[in-house]
Amino acid sequence: MGAAKFWIVSFVVSVAFLILTRWLITNEYYFFAAYQVLQFIVLATAWNILGGYTGYTNFGTGAFFAVGAYSAVVLHKLTSLPVPVMMLIGGVMSGIIGFGMGYLTLRLKGVFFAIATLALAIVAQTLIVNWDYVGGARGVYVIRPQHAPISGSYVQYLYSLMLALTWVSVAIARTIERSQLGLGFNAIRDDELAAETAGVPTLRLKLIATTLSGALMGMSGAPLPYYVTYLDPASSFNLSYAVNSVAMPMIGGMTSWIGPIVGAVLLGTIQQLATVTISSALNLLIVGVLLIVFVIIAPNGIVGLVQSRWRARIR
Amino acid sequence: MAEPILEVSGLGKRFGGFVALENINIMVETGERLGLIGPNGSGKSTLVNCLSGTLHHDSGNVAFDGRRIDGMPAYRRTRLGLARSFQLPKPFRSLTLVDNLRIPLLYTVNARHGAHLSNAEIGERCRALLADVGLADKARRLPRDLTQVEMRKLELARAVASAPRLLFADEAMAGLSPSEVEEILVVLFRLNEQGITIVLIEHIMRAVMSFSTRLVVLVAGQKIADGAPQEAIRNPEVERAYLGE
Q1: Which domains are seen in chain B, by residue range?
Q2: I need a surface site. Which of A207, B29, B214, B239 has the fewest CB within 10 A?
Q3: What is the CA radius of gyration of chain A?
Q4: So what's the ipTM on this one?
């Protein structure tokens, strides 16, 4: 399937999914839960553009996500822009940070880059904690508008926005994967020096990857203040965002756009179920255990496992 | 005398206090087969790294095809037509052999002015390049399925895929058996006949002597001989460097 066709088909699927869910589901909680799963699909897909395709591990997802969320808080206090516009601006802010992070790759590779991204998250969190205008450490309340701009509740509206962003992110990832850009990313992941001598402008490509990845993370964070109505640094910079956005592509499979979706749906749903039935404190434990299991039995994730089974059968 | 394709003058490179290369002057003529030899640690690979842009030299200057390329990033040098292969093969491990070659075709050949290959043309070119080095039947395989000599051939094929005018073959034969060395030499001779100037960095003297039309000898970061192969290796300084006093 060509890129243009995929955009159209995935759009139709997303719209159909939206109509179906809005039509069939009446319990508000399911939209609340589905929003989280979709948000994780976006985060995992965005992470995978840099981590999976290009081979640079980013532990700073929380920073990009929270910068998007806090951009929305600032915009909420200053303006009355609609949420989709806030998502775009949040994406631009996180994209700029992503661009800066791209320059780190000049000197830092592998594990050193990963550590630097972790440090970046801590620096960003410290800045927000000390910024009183957005509530500082005590957090900030965000009052939702009484009515959603479209029919249905406000949570349903946010759910619809997140579904749209999911569509865009997945289609972008899929387009990159099959393009010259994606091949260049893979070359960098496999051997950066060989890529450069084969004519790949490695720095430019890495900047594209970090900017795009950061921007999508920021966009997914922007609706968060309206979703939770109370935002504080401890929860918006939560480690679970970083851990999940690494674990989901790893468990799903990092080489294909489907992998992060599979991982996010699986882990996201399990965590939602655990939160409701057992305890929310259990979430990271589940992620950790599954990650260890998968790293041992299926290092290429679920998609890799299926692919190798399939290849073995046709041989 | 043919036109020089590469002119290196006064090139120097240090790593901290260690002088890796000092005042290197080399002129490479268009179409020639130049052998570059020297004992371990004499600076051969450092020189190739400086010329191909993966390292940057500290002093002196380098001109490719009459154009100064000091400080130019490696990918742009490749686009100008200066390619290299690596001493230890560096294939793109997760990509098939065809995709390994597709990268230089997309990013180098198609990035040049006036060239735009379609997808079908790129596919055809990849298959032709693989056939040239006898890897046609493994086009869809991954590099891990290759033997050592096949890996060297893939490394050369990827360098050649960028349609270079000058190729640095950095120890393309190290660790191979005599018959495998012969296979690689055949490939290199053919590339030279196709008009690619080749600089061969090599330890295997038999291969260097049969391939090169001229020899440059590096010892401890300095050029100590430059001339016809038979004369160069009879140079007393070269004998001393290789055999001791």
Answers
A1: 4-243 (3.40.50.300)
A2: B239
A3: 19
A4: 0.90
Q: DSSP secondary structure string, chain B?
A: -PPEEEEEEEEEEEETTEEEEEEEEEEEETT-EEEEE--TTSSHHHHHHHHHTSS--SEEEEEETTEE-TT--HHHHHHHTEEEE-SS----TTS-HHHHHHHHIIIIITTSTT----HHHHHHHHHHHHHHTT-GGGTTS-GGGS-HHHHHHHHHHHHHHT--SEEEEESTTTT--HHHHHHHHHHHHHHHHTT-EEEEE-S-HHHHHHH-SEEEEEETTEEEEEE-HHHHHHSHHHHHHHH--
User: Where in chain A are the domains?
Assistant: 3-239
Q: Do the Cβ atoms of A191 and B108 come within 8 Å?
A: no
The torsion angles phi and psi of B244, rounded to 5 degrees, stand at 85, 175
**Percent of chain A predicted with pLDDT > 90:** 68
> Which tokens belong to B90?
């560096």
Share of chain B above pLDDT 70, in %: 99
pLDDT at A286: 85
Asked if the C-beta of B107 comes within 8 angstroms of chain A's C-beta atoms, the answer is yes
Q: Do residues A123 and A62 touch, judged by C-beta distance below 8 A?
A: no
Q: Rg of chain B's alpha carbons, rounded to an integer?
A: 18
CA A46 – CA A62 distance, rounded (Å) = 12
Beta-strand relationship, B18-29 and B4-15:
antiparallel
- Please enumerate in sequence order all residues whose Cβ is within 8 A of that of A222, keeping only pairs 6 or more positions apart, or say none: A68, A69, A71, A72, A83, A86, A87, A89, A90, A91
Q: Tell me, what amino acid is at B93?
A: R
In single-letter form, the type of residue at position B70 comes to D
Which of left, alpha, beta for A110 (phi over 0: left; psi -120 to 50: alpha)?
left
Would you say the C-alpha torsion B68, B70, B71, B77 has a positive or negative sign? positive
Sign, CA dihedral B100-B101-B102-B106, equals: positive
Q: What is the per-residue pLDDT for A315?
A: 63
Cβ-defined contact of B78 to A191 (cutoff 8 Å): no
Residue B34: band (very low, low, confident or very high) from pLDDT cuts 50, 70, 90: very high
Torsion from C-alpha of A116, A118, A122, A128, nearest 10 degrees: 100
| pTM, 2 dp | 0.91
Tell which residue, B89, B142, B111, has the closest CA to residue A200.
B111
Phi/psi of residue B52, each to 5°?
-90, -5
DSSP annotation of A133: G
B-chain CB neighbours of A184 within 8 Å are 103, 106-107
Non-local (6+) Cβ contacts of A37 within 8 A are A264, A265, A268, A269, A272
Q: Return the residue in B49, B75, B94 with the most chain A beta carbons within 10 A, the one to mutate for interface testing.
A: B75
In the numeric block, which tokens belong to residue B122? 């790129």
- Parallel, antiparallel, or unpaired: how do β-strands B33-37 and B197-201 relate? parallel
Residue A49's contacts (CB-CB under 8 Å, 6 or more residues apart) are: A172, A173, A176, A185, A209, A212, A213, A216
Residue B2 CA to residue B50 CA, distance in Å, equals 24
